[in-house]
Amino acid sequence: MVSLAREVKKNGVLECWSNGRRDPTFQYSDIPVPHYSSTPLLQSSRGCSLISIRGLRKWFDSRRGRVEALRGIDLEVTEKEFCVLLGPSGCGKTTTLRCVAGLERPDAGELEIAGTVANSVARGIYVPTEKRDIGMVFQSYAIWPHMNVFNNVAFPLIKGRHRIPKDQIAEKVRAALKLVQLDGLEDRPATDLSGGQQQRVAMARAMVTEPKILLMDEPLSNLDARLREQMRVELKKITKAVGVTTLYVTHDQAEALSLGDKVCVMHDGEILQIAPPHEVYARPASLFVAQFVGEMNFVKGHVTGPSQVECPLGKLSLSVPTGISVSSPVTLAIRPEHVKVNAADGFPSGLSGNITSKNYLGDTALLEVEINGVTLLAKLAGDSELAVGQQAAVDLPAHRWHVFP
Length: 405
Hints:
Layout: E1 8-10, E2 13-18, E3 49-62, E4 65-78, E5 82-86, H1 93-101, E6 108-113, E7 116-120, E8 125-126, E9 134-137, H2 149-158, H3 166-179, H4 195-207, E10 213-217, H5 225-242, E11 245-250, H6 253-259, E12 262-267, E13 270-275, H7 277-282, H8 287-292, E14 297-305, E15 308-311, E16 314-317, E17 329-334, E18 340-343, E19 352-360, E20 364-371, E21 374-381, E22 391-395, E23 402-404
Parallel strand pairs: 5-11, 5-12, 9-10, 10-11
Antiparallel strand pairs: 1-2, 2-14, 3-4, 3-6, 6-7, 7-8, 12-13, 14-15, 14-17, 15-16, 17-23, 18-22, 19-20, 19-22, 20-21
Helix pairs in contact: 2-3, 2-4, 3-4
């Protein structure tokens, strides 16, 4: 989708922009990304780590030379935790998942699963996929079209290292199907299932062996929007009910924020921030994270003094991060829901602007407000009576601004 807010230039310099509603396929190569010497780690009190990644590196050789897919990442996923790898295409999230699954061999670093070393390049250790206690759900579901529901789910119990006595298979399969609310459909051919039902079959098959770790690679991306929202709720219920440790890959920020106990924002083979969902959204660690997660307005400015930033909106008293000196250029960021818009003279701040567009979305309304040549996106209640062309008072709370170097 095209961004709702327009770029505004002053003397040839971009003064303000809003990421609006992003196209998830957009490449963010033009956004400055800080490089960390080591990946930030989130301390957790949940228990022991079931997935431990240290200094993991992976590269591929191409016609253009070596491509670094992973640049020394570190990650700890604790027992029963739902950890989401979030980022744009090509950031390394699926490569990370495939290394955990054993489908890719890292070129450096170590990886432990449930306290056992599964990969160590330095020590020459590699545990094959079939010997790792994992279940995996693929983006394409990968269920067998010539089998019915029962046989699809029972397959891991009949073939491979998880084989069990025949008299126990039916009970295990029915329990897995009940968990994903497909009980009673055991005899239905796979080709007669809806997309959501096929996804549930894939989940049941992944969990029928009761693995310690569940790996999921964008499992909802092929579903329509309404079904995707429903499956998010079901996924969370199922994983919590089973108590399985989950590593989940997605480029969809709504999925990441709604599902994850912990979100890892990735870019260019590195993890830029690891934190609970609310912290990633409320306190993005870098300009890229602010750009990628949620909608945001950005305004260019420069530091004029201690806790003082000048920009096209005027002089603002803001908390400036340490290390940013006077006269340094900065980027200010504020979320649309924090841009307060009211009828003219509704706020004492003195800022006023002209409403240039309004996009009604039912429960919310997105307004573009032009102030001193800067266009800001504001998110209001859907029943707002403000109209295009109307003058409006604007309030930008100081504590809602983010300042990035």
